[in-house]
Amino acid sequence: MIEVLWHGRGGQGAFTAARLLGAASSFADGSYALAFPSFGPERRGAPMRAFTKMSREPIGDRSAVSRANYVIYLDDTLLGEGWEDELLPDGKVIVNSVRSFGDPRIVAIDANGISQEILGRPIPNTALLGALCSVCDYVSADNVKRAIEGYMPAKLHEKNKRVVDAALEAVGKTRAAGVAVNTDESLKSQVIGSVSRETTKDAHFDAPASRGETVIPTLQTDALDPADFAHTTCYDGGYLVAKNAGWRNMRPVLDAGKCTGCLQCYLYCPDGCLFRPARQTADAAGTAAVAIDYDFCKGCGVCVEMCRFGALAMVPESEGDER
Amino acid sequence: MAMNAKNMPADELFFGHKACAGCGGSLAVRAALKVLGPNAVAALPAGCMSAVGFNFPQLCFANNAMITPFAATAAVLTGIEAGLRAQGKKPDDCTVVGFAGDGGTADIGIQALSGAIDRNDDVLYICYDNEAYMNTGIQKSSLTPFGAKTTTTPVGKNSHGCLTQKKNVFEIVAAHGLPYAATASVGYMSDFLKKLERAKGIHGTRFIHVIAPCPTGWGAPESKMVDLARDVVDCGLWYLAEYEGEQVSGVPGGTFTLNCKPREFASVRDYLKGQGRFRALSDEEISLVERSRDAKWEMIERDWA
To answer: Could you tell me which chain B residue has the CA closest to the CA of A306?
Structure first.
């Protein structure tokens, strides 16, 4: 039995991908598949998991997958400490990311870039499905496309099939590159560029490497003191153990020079993530009337709509990191 | 001086919650607790705000807050208030406040609300209205407007969404003759803050019905949440009004006040077509929506102005 564990966020289509994969693997006679999601009580944007089990035998075990042959992350912020524990020996991780992760078991693909280019929206699920076909021989790309035709609305067929092809092509290139550099002991795992970012590839890939080491963000840690992350906005009565930062793929940035201090963003933020700094800080944002709590901002963009002076703008999360 | 962005307390009393990005309901709760302060005690029935606020161990209310049975929001408020008073533990600035959704207010919790008003218990009941049972995945409530698509009022060949009109909860509540009731919208925050302050200062049962758009359930971009909450008022499908009972106004039967009278309504079509839930509406059905709006405003101008 081949087991696949999907880590995604509500709204990214992880369960759809899990179902499509199950469908794709079960077209042949005598094939069986199971796909199901696991949600918490949280909302769109919150971490969730989905599972696909594929076998030539009837599948009796309907429980969640704790160790999988393939672990797929639709969002790289979900790839945190302990990821190895979910992987069977010889297992592979496929992650939607533009960063590199110094580990040959991790295949990174810019699925957001591919889907943004073709679908016009960063919905990475079918791109990762294409990447999986390339890494896992059990499922063919043709069957994945057949599953897309059978289980997605007709208007999405063509574009998603193109997404699968683009992902296959991107992973194919990397695998070829992987063979060529296998002798290199210091091999870093490859990051597969999106079709849209071919020209700016170097800039994108060099940025993380220049930091010297790979930083894998974690959403939950054991010791979080509200004073460390709520930046004075949080009244100390609440008890918070998890940030919401990983919910967003766009973030608001403030142009302090244009801010007039009207505070409409602060007034209308549903999460209370725009706050009035208690004291002047050294950085430029400290001179504006408001600052942004990136630990809890979900990237809804209400603040940008509320700003009449153009002082706030949404930028992709990957660019935000570089600022 | 009325509370505004510049003078409202910096403390966030509802923070770190797991609501969807751009959630109108969480903005309503955040704003209400800013006005009511850390000594307010909150009660929430089943609904989005209790589901996103109490993900143990992530507890997002800095205030004392508890979850109630679905039908019992107002009854639990009564109990909290009586209990605090009996123990002599109720500070002067302690407001006992309930945050219930539209289903928890207009469908499931209406008997408990009616009972609390009947007893004139000293509680504030806030209905954040996102126009469907969003917590369970968008089912119709009695505050879902005509034509809105939900999972129980689907759109297809034979049906174009919700067949019924939004229930007049504000007037139902006002008909009890309680001290204070108001409607508001999270898009008009200064009006909402003013009504919260007003309600805070009155003893007896108070009720605020605040429109709180749900981008997920309404099929609209998250960033447009506040704009939608303004548009619904501007196009006349929602109104900002207050009712002051005889205890407050001194007028037998109480008085209605319209706080905002649009000189000219914005386009209903633009408001409806900006949301996925109304996409299937035909021109004829849109004019039906406009006609029912006009009928409502005829009543408002005749009786309230």
So the answer is: B226
